[in-house]
Design a protein that fits this description.
The complex is a heterodimer of chains A (about 290) and B (about 425). Chain A has about 290 residues and is mainly α. Helix content of chain A is about 35%, strand content about 5%. In chain A, the strands form two sheets. In chain A, strands 1-2 form a two-stranded antiparallel ribbon. In chain A, β1 (about 110) and β2 form a beta hairpin. The two termini of chain A are about 30 Å apart. Chain B has about 425 residues and is mainly alpha-helical. Chain B folds into three domains: about 1-35, no CATH class; about 40-275, Cytochrome Bc1 Complex, Chain C, CATH 1.20.810.10; about 290-325 and about 335-410, Orthogonal Bundle (Helix Hairpins), CATH 1.10.287. Helix content of chain B is about 60%, strand content about 0%. Chain B has a two-stranded antiparallel ribbon with strand order 1-2. In chain B, strands 3-4 form a two-stranded antiparallel sheet. In chain B, α4 (about 75-85) packs across α5, α6 runs antiparallel to α12 (about 305-325) and α11 (about 295-300) packs across α13. Chain B is globular and about 65 Å long. Chain B starts with 12 loop residues before the first helix and ends with a helix. The chains are: A mainly alpha (about 290), B mainly alpha (about 425).
Chain lengths: ~290, ~425
Amino acid sequence: MTHHPFLAAAALAVGLSLASGSLVPAQADTTQAPLKDVHWSFDSPVGMYDQEQLQRGYKVYHEVCSACHSMNMVAFRNLADKGGPFWNPAYPNSNDNPVVKALAAQAQYDSIDTETGQPVKRPGTTADYFPSPFPNEVAARAANNGALPPDMSLLAAAREGGARYIYSIVTGDGTTPPAGLTVPDGKYYDPYMPGDLSSFWKGDPNKVPVGGFIAMPPPLVDDRVTFDDGTKATVAQEAKDVAAFLEWASDPKADERKQLGIEVMLFLLVFTGLLYASYRTLWRKVGH
Amino acid sequence: MSEHQSTYEPKSAFERWLDSRLPIVRFSADLMSFPTPRNLNYWYTFGGILAFCLMVQIITGIVLAMHYDTSSHGAFMSVQREIMRDVNFGWLIRGLHANGASMFFLAVYLHILRGIYYGSYKAPREVLWWLGCVIYVLMMATAFMGYVLPWGQMSFWGAKVITNLLGAFPVVGGTITTLLWGGFSVGGPTLNRFFSLHYLLPFVIAGVVALHIWALHVPGNNNPTGVEVKGKQDTVPFHPYYTVKDLFAIMVFVILFAAVVFFIPDAFEKVDNNIEANPLVTPPHIVPEWYLLPFYAILRAIPDKLSGVLALAGAIGMLFILPFLDQNKVKSMRYRPAARLYFFIWIAFCLILGWCGSQEPQGTVIPGPAGPVIIDYGINSVTWLARVSTAYYFAYFLIITPLLAMTEKTLPVPDSLFTPVLAKSAAPAE
């Protein structure tokens, strides 16, 4: 090959870039501990939700998280949809499912008296979305030291790491801060919370602790809830189950999607094979 | 279809009647029997694949529009709650549409690279090439506006960053931006405008595609040898030979598409876009979609904002002027080893630019210190890698291509596009 003047510089640049291409440079200042290594039934592209785990997760969400976090995209009926925690094939219409009917009836919603138009309360129906713990954002912040508990409908989808992130945050919340780290009032140290702690750190500036502060008090303790299926309610178990439930809440159609995907792929492979055979047959006598 | 003699014979009385009034059956028949070079390889199937992509986007898009709320208060909810959860198969329709954009760009990039490699922009196909460039620009505008519609954090802030670029133009910049925003910041009116245009532009694309196919059917297809068709022995009718080959290629493409939609539907999605747009909270890392990353890197590589915007526009403009830059009569890079080499290096730099666009500008390329600072950034920074790559990107078009066109010693070109085919079938191992 003849020598080209641009080549040497270009090749060098390509080589350097490829050599380092896989290494992601350090983020400006934000740090975070590597997420905990936890596994769920739905991890793989074809893995399905574990219905019993979703039921346990719902219990944790309902008894613990929902005191501060809204979940305004999930209705009671969704809990009984196919793939959901209370799906029961005996009730193809999830609105007929007695479990979710009972759950919905426990909640109270604003309504009006149909005779007088005066505001009244009514029990929830399966069509109602989960009630919000606070009437508005200001009230939510006022009750939580200025911090806004995020809506949980899409929490797993809106955080890098999804369920693993939620598990790590919840179990890392309230980790004893290393000596030299000043934790502000009303905040807790969490090594999994992305943050920059350098201005709160009095030690070696090269050894700033990873992670950040979170306004949520450590939410889980052993036996915070009692699981109906007899599973021992350790912090790890509660966190794992609620993370699974939040993953479901973010992506409730995942089971349906994966199931349909397998069927579609099988069809496509067969159909494409037939097309390839047609193509070969047709072109057999044509030079190309 | 000037050179293609019509072979259509009306068979029934009705067809004869219609043929003398609106020869639409003749038109379709001639389209199907169009003589096509027999040596087209799989790189030539992307035209069909792209037509398929456009159809998928338009059909899924029309259905999504039936369920979408264009108000800035309702957009996020209508996408994430109604479409993703309540509409029957809404998750699938949106999955096809959102990932369809990525698949569309994957196919269009391969289609463009094929065009450059085989010299499909050269005479007599310059107009065909320019129409293709117009489609590409329209696609980028459409995709950008479509990305804003879910009204997540990345939608909002992406819109803000990109529309702010237009403000860089002196005198008219401010007016253009205000007009585009429908106010003095990105907000509800912006979303409404973008929805309207996002619905309009695909039909404009479809119109330009019709012109693109018309401009294809006047000179006929280029082919991997770049030697023009010399007679009947060089061609086969488009149908059934290429309908079946294109359909097979489309189905292979669909397998990849389906794998993404069903098993990794959020592969191209930024997690921040699952948070509703909030003008008061800036996401830590604003990044455009992957198919715009090389241009984003070029934009950021230039220290001055207006020059950066001009460089970005110029990078796309290079494609338009390519037919003037390369005057070499040999079309296919099969017979141009030097041109081929610099072309592959250019592809590598485009990929590097894409990587640079996804990174923080001050990030280091080789782990360690950023090195001495020249024009705002250390020489070991992503920005400097992007600057070097940008320099090659433009040098490839403006210096290397014209020089090679004049100086390169090309390999012997076959007498006809059929010669290599005969040589191949004469060889023992097919």
